[in-house]
């Protein structure tokens, strides 16, 4: 029986916040200053303009295939995955990315040396249940690691839910929903160490 661990991507494996700053630099001509290094959301971390209308549409064009193949890894994440993989766990990525960018996401992960061969793109549809719940129910991993508490909604109790508590300022990872999470960790490296100690 395959021992699967499902991992979110942005905020767990890859650093979307750094990639966002790079995209902003391409858009504006200058890398943004860091406003709050402990901010959860990229828009709060960087000193950037709140865009709307045509300028926002122009900025969003930059979030293309090239962008999704060039997001940098979070410190320690590759090594954490290699440790889990070496202990016999199959790692899969379950990301709220649009389906047509799944190939770019997989290439990005493989280029950084992550031992991941499957990426599931769920999109980000609002609702009472996590857009990832259906995929998690289908692949039945032993554990699901994410950094966004609302994405734990609807995950069956058979799967261990591990929440990464990064960026405390403005974090959505608060409130009564925390009590339903199986465990919390500072980052994937901390989860990996904890998980292997339980094995």
From TrEMBL:
This is Phosphate acetyltransferase. It comes from Albidiferax ferrireducens (strain ATCC BAA-621 / DSM 15236 / T118) (Rhodoferax ferrireducens).
């Amino acid at each position: 029986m395959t021992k699967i661990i499902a991992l979110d991507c942005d905020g767990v494996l890859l650093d979307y916040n750094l990639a966002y700053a790079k995209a902003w630099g391409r858009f504006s001509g200058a890398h943004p200053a860091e406003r709050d290094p402990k901010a959860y959301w990229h828009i709060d971390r960087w000193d950037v303009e709140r865009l709307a209308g045509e300028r926002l549409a122009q900025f969003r064009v930059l979030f293309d295939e090239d962008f999704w193949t060039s997001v940098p890894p979070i410190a320690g994440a590759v090594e954490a995955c290699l440790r889990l993989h070496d202990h016999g766990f199959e790692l899969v990525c379950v990301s709220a990315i649009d389906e047509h960018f799944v190939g770019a996401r997989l290439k990005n992960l493989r280029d950084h040396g992550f031992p991941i061969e499957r990426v599931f793109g769920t999109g980000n549809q609002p609702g009472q249940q996590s857009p990832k719940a259906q995929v998690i129910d289908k692949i039945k991993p032993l554990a699901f690691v994410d950094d966004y508490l609302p994405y734990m909604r609807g995950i069956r109790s058979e799967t261990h839910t591990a929440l990464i508590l990064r960026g405390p300022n403005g974090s959505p990872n608060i409130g009564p929903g925390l009590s339903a999470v199986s465990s919390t960790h500072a980052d994937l490296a901390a989860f990996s160490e904890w998980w292997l100690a339980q094995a």
